[in-house]
Amino acid sequence: MSSDYSYDEEGTLWPFFVFTLSGLVTLPLSYVLYKGTRDPAASFPRIKSDYRPTDAEVVDATRKKDRRKDNKLWLVFLVLLGWSVMAYTMYLIYVTPTTIRSIWNPYDILGISESASEKDIKSIYKKLSRTLHPDKARPDASKNETIETLNDRYVEISKAYQALTDEEIRNNYIQYGHPDGKQSYSIAIALPKAMISDGNGKYVVLLYTLLFGVLLPYIVGTWWYGTLKRSKEGPLMESANRLFRQYEENIDVGGVITALSTGKEFEEALKGDKADAGLSKIESRILAPGETTPFAGGLSVKDKEKLEDIESGPRRKALALLWAYLGRVDLDDDALTKSKYEVAPIAHSLTKSFTAISLAYGNTAPILASYYASQHLIQAVPPKASPLLQLPHFTPAIAKAVEGDSRTVMTVQSFMDQPDAKRRSLAVGKGLLTEDQYKSAVTVAKQLPYFRVAKAFFKVAGERCIIPSSLVTLVVKGRFIPPGSEAVPAIDELELEDVDAAEDDLDAILGRKKKKQIGKDEAGKPVYEAEAPEAVFPPLAHAPYFARDYSPRWHVFLTDSKQGKMAVPPFTFTEFDAPIYGEDGVAPTFRMQTMKAQFAAPPQAGHYTFVMNVVCDCYVGFDTKMEVTLVVEEASKAAEMVGEDEISEPDEDSLAGIMNAAKGGPPPKKKRAADEEEDSEEEESGTEEEVEDTSDTNTDTEPEN
Amino acid sequence: MFSINWLSLVLPFSYVVVLGGALMSFSTIYRKRKAAESANLEPWFGPHLQRNIYLSLLHMEPEEGAEKSPKIPESVIRAALLRRAVEDIHRIIQIRTAKAACSSLLQRGSVGDDLWQRFSRAEKEMEEELRDVVMEANALAPGWGQTIFQSANEIAANTMLRKRLDEIQAQTESEKQWWEKRRAQIQKEFMSELDGGEKPVSKAPSAASEDEPVLVDQNTPSATPSAPKKKKGKK
């Protein structure tokens, strides 16, 4: 009985091992590759438009190039290698003859049926011994027999005979499957024997050294330095550092654009001779007088001075290209046009870093400026220019004509809110839009997701009033009403309520999706509502000039208007709970959407007036600013109200009681007389009785009675 | 006694030597690189012009041929020191406001470590600079060290205010022109309306369009009761 480890000498096992191992690696990688090759933006809805800007091909090419960049060549190589290894090992498994050790069967050896009687066995044995005994039988050369094989055969035969007749040997046979007793077994390692044979040892050691001494440190090192190289928001760390130095307290959108040009990414995009080539041409074009603005690039005098202060090099060219992009200035040069569309997505990725930096400072103006910079970059609209430029076919001259001589710019909403005849008279005409162009502009405008806030309020889940330091939820209710929508239904007051989940509804509290029970069928089984629809994504930004697909985000944050400081950092919303557009993807549904944001209430009681900003980072002029007041009640007063309402008061020794004490609330009142309670109950109004009902059903939370 | 087979020990020993050597060279190279990196860090602030002016005034070299260096009036030196203090105030304000933001961003991993290094170096430099200014001030006039930064602070605040004011006032000319134009236009429309009766209806929209954006923006939240009312409406 030996239990020594041996290597796989016949080569029957290691292919299985290698096949499994490579399968474990290859299959997930193949999935990743498959996911990567598909366009992730394809699953998003889009705004339908037939508008193609003049440089549409260049924009599309840039968009495609970016998508291709994501597909890594090494991944393809690795997957191919994995599949070929798997195929080869599969082939080996298929080809290698398997040596199956047959089960030792005495009946087969003797050549009798298993139902044979002892007498038959004896007679057969005798017959066989007569013919096959080594003394009798002669080795037959034609059958390749020798004395040894004859010997072995006879030994087998006698063993088989004994196994069937002798008691002890029969026991052995039954217990271990063999008349000799326990057979030896071996454990084989599923590695080819060749690995440890003398000559190959050094190659194996070399392979190990390469794997653990070179490849592993390399992978860990690239990962570690890769994380160090990029900041949390995505841009290079060096760019983030430079942006931090560019931050100013009263920066405007133009200033943000100038700051963004410091990004190191531009140095990589504009390498070598691209760093300076054509700079004077771009500058002369963007600084030429524009149709309605002093400069065609849409930059202010301050921005121009800043541009001219920069030494020539990649930064200056990047900034000039950005202004050319924002001003939609024709550069009349293929290479320059291409770079013009390439710099915008880079700058947009940098705005994220700038937003994070301005959030850390907490001043309102830079935060808004960085969001506005993002909007302007996506829409290719210069700062302070008319938001109407977001619509197809609109040029600064047309926007100017529509706006008239007004000083304030006209938003898309206010343009579209005018009756059709009126806006047609403004926009269509000689030197303005043609009838077709006007129609295409209006169809796009009628699909833009403009979030109109219906109501915004504060609440604490499950409480009636807000006490200091409690976790407040800001609930924003609103609907997507594209500009120029007709027949917008009135708001259903019921939809403006935010109903708390029942106390025992764990699913809702934990945020789990639950099927709603509609009723019961005949058998008494509950009938559930059809599965609630998944999160709804708004359509990708309508941005014909921006060389990326971008899903819009809405940021909700509170600011203190008196101090110009941010009060509650932004909450970002990318998906909504109700469908925005109907089946055709064009007609809006006007369904009520809810956005919720949680934050800690101020530690002192009082009335706090905030300005709530709802900013979409894709469309210019779609922001909402409104005042909201947060009323924080004194904890003791809140407790009184709670007491009156008969909502379960936290017990002194319960968790809620401890929490209440920790919040600085008074210790719960001692037990009151039962009749007193009854009195207060009678005074309550109808709505509050409902509250009481629910608390009565949960008697276990009641402190006493 | 054992006879040691030295030959067979060569491999393990060389392994230890190679391993140790690799680790040591890695650490020295890494540290050297780090040191070089932090030595080459860009300073947070640019050259301190006001300080340079002050120092060069203080250590004026005698002109060629002249025996003595030119006598600098005391008032000029004092003014230079005050200018230097004003610039320091600007810098200190920048550092104070940036400190919290920088450290929180560093914690979140939004900015790099070398930015923080540069920042803390600038902070230390500023401390030294302030101490130096106080000492210089005390040397020029006893007791001035306590008050120099107060006056510098006032000067700094005033200049900032002045700058903002100038910026706003610079717009007056263009604003004025625009309003003149606008008034003329409205007047013209008005007159033509008076003259022609119902005729100028087609011209009116341009005037109306101006007010509309404002109106629409305000009615955005269709029901905007103040928050306390909402609270009652809830539940």
From TrEMBL, chain A:
Keywords on record: Chaperone, Endoplasmic reticulum, Membrane, Protein transport, Transmembrane, Transmembrane helix, Transport
GO BP: post-translational protein targeting to endoplasmic reticulum membrane; SRP-dependent cotranslational protein targeting to membrane
GO cellular component: Sec62/Sec63 complex
Main location: endoplasmic reticulum
Residue ranges with Acidic residues bias: 642-654, 675-705
GO molecular function, one term: RNA binding
Region entry Disordered, spans: 641-705
InterPro entries associated with the record: C2_domain_sf, DnaJ_domain, DnaJ_domain_CS, Ig_E-set, J_dom_sf, Sec63-dom
Listed PROSITE patterns: DNAJ_1 (PS00636), DNAJ_2 (PS50076)
Residue ranges crossing the lipid bilayer per the database entry: 12-34, 73-94, 203-225
Compartmental location: Endoplasmic reticulum membrane
Membrane-topology annotation of the record: Multi-pass membrane protein
Domain J: 105-177
Protein name stated in the entry: Translocation protein sec63
Originating organism: Coniochaeta ligniaria NRRL 30616
TrEMBL record, chain B:
One Pfam family from the record: Sec66
Region (Disordered): 189-235
GO biological process, one term: post-translational protein targeting to membrane, translocation
Cellular component GO terms, alphabetical: Sec62/Sec63 complex
Bilayer-spanning residue ranges: 6-26
InterPro entries: Sec66 (IPR018624)
Keyword entries, A-Z: Membrane, Transmembrane, Transmembrane helix
Protein name per UniProt: Translocation protein
Organism of this sequence: Coniochaeta ligniaria NRRL 30616
Lineage per the UniProt record: Eukaryota, Fungi, Dikarya, Ascomycota, Pezizomycotina
